[in-house]
Amino acid sequence: MAEIIQLEVKNGDKPTNLSFTDDILSFEVEKKNFKSINKLISIHSRNILSVTLDKSNDVLRVVIEAIVPKGKLKLKLKTYSFEAIDEEAVQSWINTINLAAYKDAKKAKHFKVFINPIGGSGKANKVFNKLVKPIFDAAKCTYDITMTNRSNHAKEIANKLDLKSYDAIVSVSGDGIIHEIINGLLSRNDAAEIDIPIGVIPAGTGNALSICLLGNDHGISVPHAALNIIKGVPMKIDVCSVTQGDERYFAFMSLNYGILADGDISTDHLRWMKDFRFVLGTVQALLGDRNYDCELAMKVVEDNTERIKQRYNNAYNSSSPSSVTKSKTLIDEYGTINDPTPQEWTKLNGDGYIFFASKVPWISRNNLVFPFALPSDGLLDLMVVKRDKISKTKVANILQAFNDASHVNMKEVIYYKVEALRLKPINKENGYISIDGERAEFKPFQVEVHPKLINIISMDGKYSYS
Ligand SMILES: Nc1ncnc2c1ncn2[C@@H]1O[C@H](COP(=O)(O)OP(=O)(O)OP(=O)(O)O)[C@@H](O)[C@H]1O
Q1: What is the largest distance, in Å, between two alpha-carbon atoms of the chain?
Q2: Span between the terminal Cα atoms of the chain, in Å
Q3: Residue of the nearest CA to atom 10 in ligand 1?
Q4: Which of 417, 50, 374 shows the shortest CA–CA distance to 235?
Q5: Cα(240) to centroid of ligand 1, in Å?
Q6: Is CATH 3.40.50.10330 the classification given to domain 110-231?
Q7: DSSP state, 418?
Q8: Of 81, 159, 190, 199, which residue has the fewest beta carbons closer than 10 angstroms?
Q9: Cβ neighbour number for residue 306 with a 10 Å cutoff
Q10: Residue 123 CA to its chain's centroid (Å)
Q11: Can you say whether the dihedral through the CA atoms of 439, 440, 441, 443 is positive or negative?
Q12: CATH architecture of 5-102
């Protein structure tokens, strides 16, 4: 039986116990508006931000700051305070609980925070002050804030930042600022030695990385994301280098050509329509019978959707990580495909509807397009839907199926695991190419995956697929 670590305290005049067992802290508090009725509070150690001893006003108090569930999906910050009886016992109890609460993660981290004031339709600053700041303060974390004042501002600062002064760089915006931070870090002279992790607060319109880290339900929840930054440990992710003409830059999410890129980028001016703009843009592209003829060359490691699925199942279903330490090694153990034997550049010429390569499983909320994407297998997942013998209705069905990833069972959807690819649109002067969700120049591009270049903060040490 697990050891119960108990501390006797007083709640008002009444003696009571704070007990900790099996990673759960539990105690009784009076029910609001019902003085004589108690309710049991149970808090998992990962939700405890800090336990401290308050000696002000000549009374010794144990103060517990925690993030507790509010309804099914939300979390809220709560403070509990009890009068301590024995100073020596309380100090040793507090040390034990704080150790259990943080495990491998560093306590009281110091962050460099970037807030994009135009991110998420101008809400990012309010999101930080109202939701993130109280949680960081309760966890005794400190921070220097930069409000970005132009495009590439975060990139320029990340490029020159004294990285030794911080435990993590935190982005309070959408995926665009994360893209900038990664590009700033990887264009430094000391890029090869960088190990500072990036923490993600979803405060933009596109928050795909946060959804990948925390799942479809929690990925846009700011308290979940703040907790993940406080309690998480670095998780390595692959980054792609993209060459377009003379330019070279880095992408951490996706490269997209075809109706999905058109649907996203061509409707950028219709942001007020929220998610509906993607539907509208994609339908327009479908009905407009646009042509996506291209030359696609790739270094294929795996070209059979069934085998790709099997490898994914081996990676994620054969072991269910129960702690941060165990899950941290899961990616290293299973994330790399054994004996990759890349074929020569395979060429796939022709017209199609979708040419979409990604390092991340979710491209947006409710769109699990790449359920086999792994953070650090050194490979890009490429999805191709060819035009041959496929109706427009079928294409619409495929798009709808992204919701529950059932498109992977449709024979028209082909997946490849590739180390590198080159895409050259043909018979077309203008069109849309989207890289990390932003419009890129309409030019041929070449992509290569670099394994484990960047660290992202994660509590679970893996992406979420649900
Ligand atoms: N003060 C600023 N004014 C204008 N643009 C800015 C400013 N600060 C940052 N940016 C730019 O805003 C872009 C969008 O940021 P980000 O993607 O993080 O937020 P978002 O709300 O998700 O935006 P989007 O809707 O474009 O995805 C970034 O690429 C960045 O270059």
Answers
A1: 82
A2: 33
A3: 151
A4: 374
A5: 21
A6: yes
A7: E
A8: 190
A9: 7
A10: 19
A11: negative
A12: Roll (2.30)
User: Could you report the per-residue pLDDT of 39-94, keeping only the tens digit for each?
Assistant: 899 999 999 999 999 998 889 999 999 999 998 889 999 999 999 999 999 999 99
Ligand 1 center to 155 CA (angstroms):
12
Model ipTM value:
0.97
Q: Which residues of 235-248 are buried (b: 16+ CB within 10 A; e: fewer)?
A: bbbbbbbbebeeee
Mean pLDDT of the chain: 88
Instruction: For residue 206, give the ligand 1 atom closest to its CA.
Output: 22
Q: How far apart are CA 119 and CA 221, in angstroms?
A: 16
Among 95-99, 202-206, 310-314, the minimum mean pLDDT is found in: 310-314
CATH of 243-449, one of 2.60.200.40, 2.60.40.1180, 3.40.50.1000, 3.40.50.1010: 2.60.200.40
Residue 120 CA to ligand 1 center (angstroms) comes to 8
Domain residue extents for the chain: 5-102, 110-231, 243-449
Q: What is the pLDDT of residue 337?
A: 32
- R_g (Cα) of the chain, nearest Å: 25
Q: How many whole angstroms separate alpha carbon 190 and alpha carbon 168? A: 17
Closest CA to 290 of 263, 271, 268, 264: 263
* Cα(198)–Cα(379) distance, integer angstroms: 21
Per-residue pLDDT, 389: 81
Q: Mean per-residue pLDDT for 159-174?
A: 98
